Amino acid sequence: MIGCMACDLTAWRDELHGGEIGRTDAWVVEHCVGPLGVGTLIIKPVRHCVGLWDSTDDEAADLGPVMR
Ligand SMILES: [Zn+2]
């Protein structure tokens, strides 16, 4: 999605310091950008979502194993 920094980082349209750490079909694990800096990790959906309430049942079921 144009104008979404999270999606730009996921799609490598913007520089991601530290790179991608892990990925499933639904989720990607990356270093956080911004004030928390490299070393702080973020789990975010592969597709554009505004919040967890936008997750499909399959995405929600996959989140626990990713967090573990
Ligand atoms: Zn997005």
SSE topology:
Elements: H1 5-10, E1 20-23, E2 27-31, E3 41-45, H2 57-67
Bound molecules: zinc ion.
The site of zinc ion (ZN) has 5 residues, from helix 1.
Give the SSE order as H and E letters: HEEEH
Mean pLDDT: 89
Q: Note the main sheet.
A: 3 strands, antiparallel
**CA-atom Rg in angstroms:** 12 Å
The helicity comes to 25-40%
Judged by helices, strands and strand pairing, the structural class is: alpha+beta
- Oligomeric nature of the chains: single chain
Q: What spatial form do the alpha-carbon principal axes imply?
A: globular
Residue runs with pLDDT of under 50 for 5 or more positions = none
Question: Counting H and I runs of at least 4 residues, what is the number of helices?
Answer: 2
Strand content: 15-25%
Number of domains: 1
Ligand inventory: zinc ion
Strand order of the largest sheet: 1-2-3
The separation of the N and C termini measures 28 Å
Strand tally is 3
What would you say this structure looks like, in words?
By secondary structure, the chain is of the alpha+beta class. The protein is 25% helix and 21% strand. It has two helices and three strands. The chain has a three-stranded antiparallel β-sheet, covered by helices on one side. A hairpin with a 3-residue loop joins strand 1 and strand 2. The N and C termini lie far apart (28 Å). The chain binds zinc ion. The site of zinc ion has 5 residues, from helix 1.
